[in-house]
Specification:
The chain is mostly beta strands. The chain contains 4 helices and 24 strands.
Length: about 450
């Protein structure tokens, strides 16, 4: 198990390329660095991931991170003291990070909250970071600083060895690579990486409690996990007018003015409970089959808002002819379909209502953030499938070539998702663009 809590990930970026599960054949393997570099810390440290093979460095299969390193501190073989549930338990948390080389700060982020150990921030995977331009075509990225610890600013010139900030928390990840079958004609290699979050808030932390904040995943309430979501409790469609109806009863002993969740329903959390990636590579003689899969368990999302004006999530409007409408609208309430479970079209009679906290909204905005619009985000997605065949050497030599390979790759061919998405592409159902599905045939000839 690779403990990546509180790790500084150091990149010496030479170029930005793509991403691969296999060892990418970089043209920079023999590159000679021009910048005079040194390690960005003091004392004795342990390289948890670093090297020129997948077995040595899980970053080696990622074109962008190929030369990255994960570096931690250990005492008696462990990276933390105690039970490891607090950031401060980890030996490298809060330690100083220095500039590995002189240059100009061109990008930085300093306001991302430190994770609770075990939690992953997938929206901001670099956390707090600094990018240094060494002004010779080379850059260094230092990521996962402690929140508000970076003491330099964008545009500053820093010298090698100058303090930049303090190490922060980057989460937990397990990465496993093994080859269960290997012979002259057969090879099967498997790459598995997974992460799971464990978190619960011990104190409330809500600066401006509103129901909209409660539907965003940023309402931090004691004894609930990070990224918790609340929604209006949808109870059905009023058969007389097609308006959605809700249960707005206030929980006993709670003040709706200071706690809008008192009249809403907890529906889970935005972040998944567990994520995993699986890469399989099977070779039989000259045939090779490779697959890449992604698994997410848990996590919830709101489906895309309905009956809203263009470029808005709040202004209620009749649908326009160029809107990307959900097919659910064909089953909406009408005077002749009074048993529908989808609200009818909004009209001029739509008025504002007062919520228990004293704020105003309307039935349709409430519907967009109700239990009827919550989807379980668990998914199993096939990222890619590729098959290739290398012609035998006796044929290749007759054609005066060094190698000939033909192959086929399917990117994002299919995925299994929750029925909550109602058969709609999961990305489209939540208001995003669909993943690009592509099929590629290739022929490679080396002379």
């Amino acid at each position: 198990m690779l403990q990546k809590i509180n790790t500084v990930i150091l990149f010496f970026l030479i170029s930005l390329l793509g991403c691969s599960k296999e060892e990418y054949k970089s043209p920079y393997l023999n590159y000679q660095t021009k910048t005079d570099l040194e390690l960005p810390f003091e004392g004795e440290w342990y390289v948890a991931a670093g090297g020129r093979t997948i077995k040595q460095n899980h970053h080696f299969g990622n074109r962008e991170e190929k030369f990255a390193m994960d570096i931690i501190q250990q005492v008696d073989g462990k990276s933390f003291a105690g039970n490891g549930k607090q950031n401060e338990d980890y030996y490298c948390f809060g330690k100083t990070v220095n500039a590995p080389g002189s240059g100009k700060i061109v990008f930085m982020e300093n306001n991302v909250y430190d994770n609770v150990p075990g939690e992953l921030n997938r929206k901001q995977p670099n956390g707090n970071y600094v990018i240094i331009d060494h002004e010779n075509g080379e850059y260094s990225i230092l990521a996962h600083f402690k929140k508000s610890s970076i003491i330099v600013q964008k545009g500053d010139y820093v010298n090698k060895g100058q303090e930049l900030g303090k190490i922060g928390n980057s989460g937990i990840e397990i990465n496993l690579n093994f080859i269960p079958i290997q012979s002259k004609n057969y090879t099967l290699s498997i790459n598995i990486n997974t992460s799971k979050t464990f978190n619960s808030l011990k104190t409330d932390f809500v600066a401006n409690p509103t129901w909209r904040l409660a539907t965003s995943g940023n309402y931090f309430l004691k004894d609930y996990p990070m990224s918790s979501l609340w929604a209006f409790d949808f109870t059905g469609i009023d058969p007389t007018n097609g308006y959605p109806t809700f249960n707005l009863d206030v929980a006993e002993g709670k003040d709706p003015v200071t706690d809008p969740t008192s009249f809403m329903k907890y529906v889970g959390k935005l972040n998944p409970d567990l994520t995993a990636g699986l890469g399989l590579n099977f070779r039989y003689k000259m045939f090779t089959l490779s697959t890449s899969l992604y698994l997410q368990l848990g996590g919830h999302k709101f489906l895309a808002p309905v009956y809203v004006a263009p470029n808005s999530t709040r202004t209620i409007s009749l649908p326009l002819e160029y809107d990307n409408l959900t097919k659910e609208i064909t089953e909406r309430w009408t005077p002749t379909n009074t048993t529908a479970s989808f609200p009818g079209l909004p009209d001029s009679r739509l008025s504002q209502i007062i919520l228990p906290d004293g704020t105003y909204t309307n039935y349709y905005e409430m519907y967009n953030y109700s239990t009827a619009r919550v989807a379980n985000a668990s998914t199993l997605r096939v990222n890619s499938i590729s098959i290739s065949y290398s012609l035998p050497n006796n044929i290749v030599s007759r054609l005066k070539c060094q190698g000939i390979n033909v192959g086929f790759t399917a990117a994002n061919p299919f995925a299994w998702v929750s029925r909550d998405f109602k058969g709609i592409d999961a990305e489209v159902a939540t208001g995003s663009q669909p993943r690009t599905r592509s099929y590629t045939f290739n022929l490679s000839v080396n002379f």
